[in-house]
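Pipeline run #58 for the internal structure catalog. This entry was flagged by the ingest filter as a single-chain record with no existing model, so it goes straight to prediction. Upstream metadata was stripped on purpose; only the residue string is passed forward. Reviewer on rotation: M.T. Logging verbosity set to normal.
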Amino acid sequence: MSNTRLDQILKMLETHPSDPFLHYATALEYEKLEQNERAIEILEKLLLTQSEYLPTYYKTGQLHELVGNSERAIELYLEGKKLARIQKDFKTEGELSEALMLLDVFDE
């Protein structure tokens, strides 16, 4: 096995399979390798298993936009914005609002 960042993260996942950050980081590495569908698959699974992990919404939405699925991106940005309000994460709420505005979606 080579000593790439992805390999290192996958090895850590063997020890800590429920760590949401490691799943998120794995998806980011696949994105860097231009394997966007694989990254989306990982992030969508993370949304199902650990929906409270807020960073997932923005990144998954971005990737869906990138592959031409704006409808799913909008759903994710709206869901993430609601969660950000609950978690009182106003910075992330603002980022998600901006993403929606760039898609001409105004939800207030």
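catalog note: The domain at 5-102 is CATH 1.25.40.10 (Serine Threonine Protein Phosphatase 5, Tetratricopeptide repeat).
catalog note: The helical segments are 5-15, 20-32, 36-49, 55-66, 70-86, 90-102.
status: ready for reviewer M.T.
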